[in-house]
Amino acid sequence: MLVVGGTGLVGRAVVERLRDEGAVAIAASRHVEDGIVVDAQSAESVAAAVGSVMAGHGRLDALVVAAAPSARTLDASRHADPEQVLGAIDAKAMSFLRLANAALPIMTGAGYGRIVGISGQNAFLTGNVTGSVRNAALIIAAKNLADGVAGSGVTINTVSPGMVSATPVAEVEAGRGGESSPSQIAALVAFLVSPLAGAISGESIAVGHRVRGVTSF
How many CB atoms lie within 10 A of CB 180? Predict the structure, then answer.
């Protein structure tokens, strides 16, 4: 199982959870000591990383993409600046798409695979064009890919946390999503990449309470 962004807050928790459950979880990021170095914004680097997994293990059962700069790194004063929006889409949604496109031929050829992308509940909110569009684009890309491989044995889903905190509070404010911890997110991802989740595909699942006071379909 390849976890891209595996040295970040959420990705690291996913790697640890999968290993605790007995899976061979390989962390991948731009800077990693125990894993594979990959730049998800480079098609050549992505191809090399997936090729390295296949050369070393002969299979790729699951891909988790948690690679993206934190929303806290985005400049709120430039939230509607087209250059920032495009850069954020490339770093998050297009990185997911590059990785999924590299993994899908292997998975469909094997008749089995799990892909999970980490998006965010900003996709369901207005007020920050960059945060909203980069997450929504990932969800829409994943749904399109999931529909394209429906019935193949490969599933593709997205997970959307609200605020991520080591000590999430139970209260959920109106107009906001609930908080969740990295370990809670990792638990859901671990289920989605397991054989037990074979009937779930094309879904966008919120972690923490989905935005309070807002319905979405």
Answer: 23
